[in-house]
Amino acid sequence: MSQTATLSETNQHHWDDNAASYDAEPWAQAILRKVADGINENLDWIGVDWVAKDGAEHNGRQVKMLDYACGPGNVAKTLYPHVSQVYGIDVSRGMVAEFNKRATVSGLSPRQMFAVQGDLLVDPTSQPAIGGPDFFNFDLISVSLAFHHIDDSELAVKRLVERLKPATGVLFMIDFVPDGKDFHGHGHGHGHDHGHGHGHSHSHSHSHSHSHGHGLKHGHKHGHKHGQDSEDTQQTPVAQAAQGTIAHGDGFGKERMVGLLEAAGCVDVDYIILDKTLNLGPNFHMMEKTAFMVRGRRAA
Asked: What distance lies between CA 80 and its chain's CA centroid?
């Protein structure tokens, strides 16, 4: 078995094992609430012609959304009142099952909200579940707190934009801004070994491990040598199991994200900072992180 296959399988197995508990901790719930608030406060900025709903009724126009690396469906749930249909894709069968279970509990039919397993960085001809017309011509594609888990950023954005409706479809992403810290809150200037398990250094040589995570429970280990073991370097078994799922631990700046979307064929690209501090949980020593939102419209 190749290293790439092993990394991809390990990532899938980790989220399969932790799908139900992904957002169980209070600190994780607080992050997701702030993300939801940020989305709702910026609906006009996102730039989609949302459906006008009154309870279960809307104006008859169809607005189709894809939630990529969807996890258990938190962003799908946030945006569903403004769209008519949500599809989810995730590499983890466990996350897909949790997404669909929560949609059913919310009273939604599979035609309203449904997820399947898939990976847009893998040959699409080998994935019939995401190869049909239902999984193209989206009015909106979202990727929330997962992009830093995807090794090949350029290919990912290209494949996402290809599935948008030409001229009007919007790609909308949320992730962390660069802050000079890893997920333990330490700076990068004193010789730490950033062993993410992707077979590349921070020059990002793209080993294509396709590890799509979901922004929480990272818990990756950086091998810091401070002369003694401390509470700061201790990790729970779940945190240890998540090592190797982060491809881009330094975040994404405006120039980088705008360049990625424009190179993939987007116009009207904009990048804004979410004015809410995200406090990561005990595995990250309650470290404060800042998120950005970026959106771009597929050109005609």
From this structure: 17
- Give 287's contacts (C-beta < 8 A, 6+ positions apart): 181, 183, 184, 185, 279, 280
pTM, rounded to two decimals: 0.80
- The answer to whether residues 142 and 42 touch, using CB atoms and an 8 Å cutoff, is no
Instruction: Report pLDDT digits (tens) over 185-204.
Output: 445 433 333 333 333 333 33
- CB neighbours of residue 189 within 10 Å: 7
Tens of pLDDT, residues 137-185: 999 999 999 898 788 899 999 999 999 999 999 999 999 999 876 554 4
Alpha-carbon gap, residue 147 to 87, rounded angstroms: 18
